[in-house]
Every structure is written in structure tokens, then in C-alpha cells.
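Q: C-alpha cells for this one, please.
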Amino acid sequence: MARARAHPNPAVNYAALSTEAINPRSALLDSLPPDEVVKLMVTEEARTVRAARAQAANIARAAELYAERLAGGGRAVYVGAGTSGRLGTLDAAECVPTFGVPPSLVVSILAGGPHALTHAVEGAEDNDREAEDRLKRAAVGPKDIVLCIAASGVTRFSLAALAYAHRRRAATVFVTCTRAPRTREGKPLADVVIELLTGPEVVAGSTRLKAGTATKITLNAISTTAFVLLGKTYGGLMVDVRPTNAKLWARAVRIVRLLSGLDDAKALALLKKAGGRAKVALVMHHARVPAARARELLVQHRGQLRAIVGDLDLHD
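A: Here is the predicted structure, written as C-alpha cells:
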């Protein structure tokens, strides 16, 4: 692995980055009582929602691309360093139980490797060679979508990953919390660029704060919208949840009960016949078919439960 450069990149004016700017509202931060520090931070955090809302159209475009690539047999690959990379890893991991997708379809590439989830890995974000090597090992290609996350917009690991993904003709999304740079030809860096303009942090440069919150909101919105498009919900219910613990079993039973009118005992029995899959159980109940046929119907209708059972009333 190539050695990362551990000094500033002379091509980047770090002082000009909005994520590095000094927030005038926190000029006396160290002299404030705890409740005033908290109030200031919460007030600043409110800016994250406005920043994400301002990018709603681009976030929706990213979600559509995400859904298209997964529907076409591709994967979603999240790439980032530090907080950005950890948030990408979190979103990828949480999609698996929430929407019942295999881990192989939502992949995370974190600068510095798995160790960087819990430890700072010195120089990892500057290692562009590692980024290319990791995407190459992941066999990123034209069917995939690569979501590169860089709060500052200048993280070499993320930018190198983005360039490699582009060469491999993968769909690309770039999420940043400042104005995104452009290519030498003046073109956008990615198919979809999402600029979350959260402004200076309460602690200058600490992008785990507002930038991190805005990034979390955005990744949640991209993946959730994509999986809604892929039929992973019915209304606001996660009908493709995979019950891997007691809480998720209880949730799956509740979903079946709400959409079938069965009591808890019968909903649980039906869910067990469906192999723990609430969506299959509901097709079995409403279409009056066995589990195997229910699964066939779901494949025929691209996983869209409503296309099979229509509009159901909630029974509570």
C-alpha cells in the first residue's frame, strides 16, 4: 500500500473551505455555561435540515439512480474517510435488516479499513492509491452506483475513488458540505452532486457536528427513498424487514397483524410459514396462496406488495 502524504496539499486552500471557517457565534464558546453551549449547538444543528431540504431535488435524483442500479443487478458502494466514511458504513449496514437486502448489495469502503471505524487512522484520507486499490478489489463496474462522501469536498481518498468509479462507468454521487470542486473541463465531479451548505462548525473544522448531521440526513434520504422505489415498504411499514432479533420479530408480527387483521398468534404462525418474511406472509394471506406462490408473485411484480394486494386498511 502506498504511503499517505501527511502534510497539507499545496493545491488546496484549506482556509477558504467553509467547513474550516470560524463560526462568529462561538467566539466565546469556552466561556459559556454548559446550557448555553448546548443551546448554541442545537440552534446551529437546525441549519442542517435547511441545507438538506435545499438539495431535495439532487437527493431525489441520487435515490433514483441508486434504485435503478440495484434493480439492474448492481450494488451501492459508499466511500469516505473519517466521519464521512463512518456514516457511509452505518447507512450501508442499516439497509440490510431494515429493507431485507443482502450485505453484498450495499458495500462500504472506509479509508484505513475496518479499524478506522473506531480509531483515527493517520493519513488514511490522503491515500488516493488505497482508494483505487479498494474499489478495484471490490470490482466496481458499470452496474454499480458509488456514493463518495467528503464533508470538506477535497478529501483525496474520496476524490480518487470518484475518479476511478467514473473510469469504470459506474453511476456516481458526490456528497459534500461545501461548494464542490469541478473537473478541469469545468464539468460536475459526479452524475449527481449534493452540496450541503451547513456553514462553519461551532468548533471550527469539526465536521462530525453539522456536516455529519447533514450527511446522515442525506444518506438516510437517498437509501430510504431508493428502497421505497424498490418496493421495500408498504406505506410507512418496512414490510421487507428481516427479523434477526426479538424486537424485529415483534415488529414483523405487528406489520402482518396491521395489514391482515389477524391476531398476534395467527400473525406469528403465518409469518413462520413465510420464513419470517412479512411481505410473503401478507401475499399468502390476501392472495390465498402458499409461500412458494407468494414469492413467485412478488418476483413477477418486482417486489411491489401494493401491486398484488391493492390498498389495505390498517387494523389496530
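A few notes: The longest helix spans residues 34-54. The beta strands are 76-80, 106-110, 145-150, 171-176, 192-195.
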